[in-house]
Amino acid sequence: MARDDNKKTILEGQAAINLWLEGVDVWNQWVADNPVADISFEDADFRQYDKVSFERYMFPKGHVNFSRAQFGKGDVYFDRARFGEGDVDFSSAQFGEGDISFEGAQFGNGSAYFFSAQFGPGNTDFSRAQFSKGIVNFDFAQFGEGDVNFYSTQFGEGDAYFYNTLFSRGNVYFYCAQFGEGNVSFEGAQFGQGFVNFYGTQFGTGDVYFDGAQFEQGDVSFYGTQFGEGTIGFSNVQFGEGDVSLASAKILGRLEFSNLVKVHKISGLSFKFTTFEGPVDMDGNEFHCIPDFTNTKLSHQLSLSHFSVKPKMRNKGKLFVKTLIGLRQIWLGSQLRFSSTKKAIKLSRIMAKKFPWLAQATAADRQDIDRLRRLKELAESNKHHKLALDLHIEEMKCSRWIETPWHQLFTEFLFQKLGDYGRSILRPILSLILLWLVCAPIYAVASNNKEISSDALIFSFSQMFSIIPSSKDARTESSQALYGTLIDGKLVVDVPHMVFAVAGVQSLASVALVFLIGLALRNRFRI
User: Fold this and answer.
1) What percent of the chain stands above pLDDT 90?
2) Which end of the chain is flanked by fewer CB atoms within 10 Å, N or C?
3) Which ranges does the record mark as transmembrane (predicted)?
4) What pLDDT does residue 328 have?
């Protein structure tokens, strides 16, 4: 122990370790006798001790330094420890293989630094810890394979930094944690395969950034979380294969949820019952699920530029599976082995992707239908006509075999194949040309000429565009050339009944195809 020029006590080195070994009562009595002092365990080596416990230890008003301290294989306890008003520094501290607990620890008005601290494979517990006015810094800290628990932790008025913090395989809990008025940063943080839980967390008025963070396979929950008036950034975040939930949250500031990385891995994304008081940016995301915005309240614009969704589908029908297995049984003349059945099922899935109508492809989750309707409503309110049309088409696909009556399915089938749901101009034009060329030989065969002449082509064309004034004269002249016969110097036109039937069908089909062209033009140039 030594004193500086200002008569401030400094406890450090082996003297500090010796006093700690005396136990909590002797330690706390020393603190009572020296209320203003700095304590330093910098570079201290605790590896020779099976367990390191500062449980209920009191620290004076001064700087507390555990930087680069090395803890052994046992557990480390700072439960309900009380730090003074100075800074607390655990920068680059190395914790051992046991559990680390700061449960109920109280930090004073100074900052708390865990910069580059390395936590062992055990559980790390900061539940119900209280930080005051200073900065809380876990930048570049590395947590082990155990759970990391910040349950009901109260962060003070200062900023909280978890920049590039590495969370390993365990679960991460910030359940009901409370952040103060400062900024909160999880930028570049890497979360492991466990569950990440921010359920009921309350963020203050500062900005909250998760930009560039990486989540692995576990679910991520911000259910019931309250965000303040600052910017909430999730740009360039990489989520894993689990579900992501911001349901029932209250977001007062601007939410940036744009340009997510490997967004196709997300199993589900929910904003259900969430209240947005600021603008929402979802630009640049191509989801392979349907984000749930049902029962949400939006006070500002929802930006959906370069946004798309792809619902998960399932094959309701078993036509391909039954057919392939049946054919293999007939061919082999016996019951199929497991490997043969497996191959048949795999082949049936390939066929189902190529022929979704025969496989009765429909939504894997019936709730996707309502989710698509809500997204379509939001796209329409933003005057994003192309996206609204695409979402309407996905809604139709998901509704097949669930809500769409069976007698309307054939019409929808033609609507898809001939016009791509009103999005294609080329398909109906090519269909018109094909219809024109297919009907012309029929008219020629039914005539006296029996050859495909220009008259047959003209007659076929006139049946398609009867609204054009010149088509009436063309139809009259071509019918005379095809079906006219001179009898006693008089031209008699006798059109076979089959020609009337084919011409009627051609005219109706032409009207439908012209309508599809007009619909595509309208959708393309809609204002």
Assistant:
1) 62
2) C
3) 425-446, 498-521
4) 53
Q: Which residues of 240-262 are buried (b: 16+ CB within 10 A; e: fewer)?
A: bebbbbbbbbbbbbbbbbbbbee
DSSP 263: G
Q: List all residues 6 or more positions away from 219 whose beta carbon is below 8 Å from its beta carbon.
A: 195, 196, 242, 243, 244, 245
Check residue 497 and report its DSSP letter: H
Distance of CA 102 to the CA centre of its chain: 34
Predicted confidence band of residue 320 (pLDDT cuts 50, 70, 90):
very low
The pLDDT tens digits of the residues spanning 79-109 come to 999 998 899 999 999 998 899 999 999 998 9
- Per DSSP, the residues of 270-292 read E-TT-EE-S-EE-TT-EESS--B
Q: Work out the widest C-alpha separation in the chain, in whole angstroms.
A: 138
Measuring CA to CA, which residue among 253, 246, 303 is closest to residue 274? Answer: 246
Q: Residue 58 pairs with which residues in a beta bridge?
A: 82
* Model confidence at 379: pLDDT above 50: yes
DSSP 118: B
Instruction: Look at residue 450 and tell me whether its pLDDT is greater than 70.
Output: no
- Is the dihedral angle over the CA atoms 224, 225, 231, 235 positive or is it negative? negative
CA atoms within 13 A on the CB side of 28: 10
Q: How far apart are the first and last CA of the chain?
A: 80
Cβ atoms within 10 Å of 67's Cβ, excluding its own: 19
| 184 vs 230: CA distance, rounded Å | 10
CA–CA distance, 223 with 141 (Å, rounded to integer):
26
Q: Would you give the distance in Å from CA 355 to the centre of its chain?
A: 28
The CB density around residue 350, as the number of other CB atoms within 10 Å, is: 10
pLDDT band with cut points at 50, 70 and 90 for residue 74:
confident
Both tokens of 517, joined, read 């062209």
